[in-house]
Amino acid sequence: MKVGDRVIIANGALLAGYAQVGDRAFISGNCLIHQFTRVGRLAMMSGGCAIQKDVPPFCITRSLSTNTVMGLNVVGLRRSGFNEGQRRELQQAFKILYRSNLNISQALEKLESEFTSELVRELCEFIRTSERGLCKFIK
Predict the structure, then answer these.
(1) Residue-level pLDDT, tens digit, the chain, 139 residues
(2) For the UDP N-acetylglucosamine O-acyltransferase C-terminal domain, which residue ranges apply (predicted)?
(3) Which of 33, 49, 67, 131 has minimal Cβ neighbours within 10 Å of its Cβ?
(4) The domain 79-131: what is its CATH number?
């Protein structure tokens, strides 16, 4: 297991072997993380959720559900000092990734052609190196 810097893990959370948690991630109470699964930097897992797929950086999962993200961790980004422009750019990238009806390969191609920022590059690199697949989006 690999846990990054300044990670918060609440009571009852279970992390299986070889799981990876990025810096400043927040794992809420009673969350379940399957082995070989990754949680990206500044991601937030809402209470009682379970994942067997990777949670991309900067995203937030849906409470009491499995393998779903519901948006960006905007509060965590703001508290971490990301400015409005950076947050807006990540929101645009999230829309391309999850709400544009593109498959992952097409979305990555579009993200890499339209954005040059370090944050979007980090998101793309996380996605490219995913072996278990990504959590899906549900409103």
Answers:
(1) 999 999 999 999 999 999 999 999 999 999 999 999 999 999 999 999 999 999 999 999 999 999 999 999 999 999 999 999 999 999 999 999 999 999 999 999 999 999 999 999 999 999 999 999 999 998 7
(2) 54-135
(3) 131
(4) 1.20.1180.10
